[in-house]
Amino acid sequence: MPAPRAASFRPAVDVLRGSLIGVVEVIPGVSGGTVALIVGVYSTLIASASHVVRGALALTDVLRGRGPARAMEHFRAVTWRIVVPVLIGMVVAVIAGARILAPLVAENPVETRAFFAGLIAASLLVPIGMVGRAWSWRLVLVAALAAAASFVLSGLPAGQVADPPLVLVALAAAVAICALVFPGVSGSFLLLVFGLYETTLAAVNDRNLPYLLAFAIGAVVGLGSFVGLLRMLLDKHPAVTLAVATGLMAGSLRALWPWQDSTGSALPPGDDLWGVIALTAIGAAVVLALVAMQYRLADGRSPR
């Protein structure tokens, strides 16, 4: 009985997972790929995205008179029963997050950064655990170098472009979307660095169709170009890839130091220290609860 009952709730749980991924995608410094890893759908999404891209490329066989068989084989390999609910949750969460969560972050920056810092810090346990006994001093060095790179990137000054050309929007989207499939890199933070974060949120809220279309085209091109490479790395060099992800996640914590000035420079802790510590602990607890939920759904197996 427990197994069928869990299966009946699976679509709703996958919508919730997609919502969590979508919500953090509007928060600079927090990686949607990290949350996908935490909630246990990362490998499924990467594999499915790879098949969608390869299937789309294989559609050229129809123009060559070879038929759609190869393309359909890739499309059938997509785990649609998981991908569709996750995508629905992501889209709804991004739209809602642009209206609700973004102002919340703007009005309560210290508190929200503290919460998400706890989330990311606890989520380090996920890739560390997936590497498992394969950890060696070489992998630790790889993780340290990735952490240093992420730390430097997180400290880059952010600007703002009020009326960007659509070509720039597409190029920025092509780069930022890669963060969705690689843990530890925040797509929203990259948009912040490019000066397009607030502009993109405004485009979502205002339903700026030309802007959103340019963004979507860039995202599709970027995802199609990157996902195959990432899938190959995960298949052939999983330990190294996960070590890099661990380092990127650790280094990105710089962007989530709770006390910052208007330029993003770190400030010393304020009088709200204990409240910030409590929120950080709550964020960590949320991650641990999500990981526990994933283990339960997977019948005790490690996250996919």
Automatic annotation (TrEMBL):
Lineage: Bacteria, Bacillati, Actinomycetota, Actinomycetes, Micrococcales
Annotated organism of origin: Microbacterium hatanonis
Keyword Membrane: yes
Positions of transmembrane segments: 20-42, 82-102, 114-131, 137-156, 168-197, 209-230, 273-295
Any Pfam family the entry gives: VCA0040-like
Coiled coil: none
Keywords annotated in UniProt: Membrane, Transmembrane, Transmembrane helix
Domain of life, per lineage: Bacteria
Alphabetized InterPro entries for the sequence: VCA0040-like (IPR007163)
Name this polypeptide is given: DUF368 domain-containing protein
